[in-house]
Amino acid sequence: MKKQILIAGLMALSLTAAQAAGDPKKIVVDGSTTVGPIAKAFAEYYMKAHPDVNITVSESGSGNGAKGIINGACDVGTLSRAMKTEELEAAKGKKRNPVQHTIAFDGLAVVVHPSNPVQSLSKDQLRDIFTGEIKSWQEVGGPNLKIVVISRDTNSGTYETFHEQVTKAGRITDRAEYVGSNGAVRQRVQSTPAAIGYVGLAFTEGLKPVTINGIEATPENVLAKKYPISRGLFMYTAGEPAAGTALGDYVNLYKAADGKKLVAEQGFVPVQ
Known about the structure:
Number of domains: 2
Order of helices and strands: HEHEHEHEEHEHEHEEHEHHE
């Protein structure tokens, strides 16, 4: 039977994880929607070379990727932010030692509708838009339209990165709409002329990224640490996977030339 990469709901994931986690020929991956394209590309590549191995990839959010590592529901937790102190402590309390693998780097592109004439925002203006201090595009050189703020949901690592690096102590406006994935942000901004949102570098197709502090959201600027909203992308395992095992080979694919190529093809920045 031809193997498929499964994007399952949480119930399906639980069943799959219970059957597969810990099986050396079955790898269960869950977590970030941002890291999802890399995880799936790695899975396709690895299964093509090793047809006896089955890898399932789900995208239920970075928070659930961390929970999967804590509870043993997945072999690989994908996160677009580092595990929190309380998550690490919870895992260690269950005798599971999370090991962080930085597989790529990413920038959060700030995106608007292609018809929006605004080309650039300062980081302070961006903060004020998302906290509700700036309510109209006219205040930042755009049309006299009320800004529609689109945010990732609070379980998302992308949301947490944006909060830590942009809004900080400020609370996101009550007028914000929360959506569950990078794709959902893209769809909402594409269909809404007055909208603004933020997505990983790989999700800007059909949108207009604006520069932040005059810097474009490009892989080159992320790698050079010039773009002001950037982050690492992670895979977590419970302990260091043994070399030569399917899990070890899969997780460490980012170190190989083919793995770096796959990361770049998904629109992210390979680890040098």
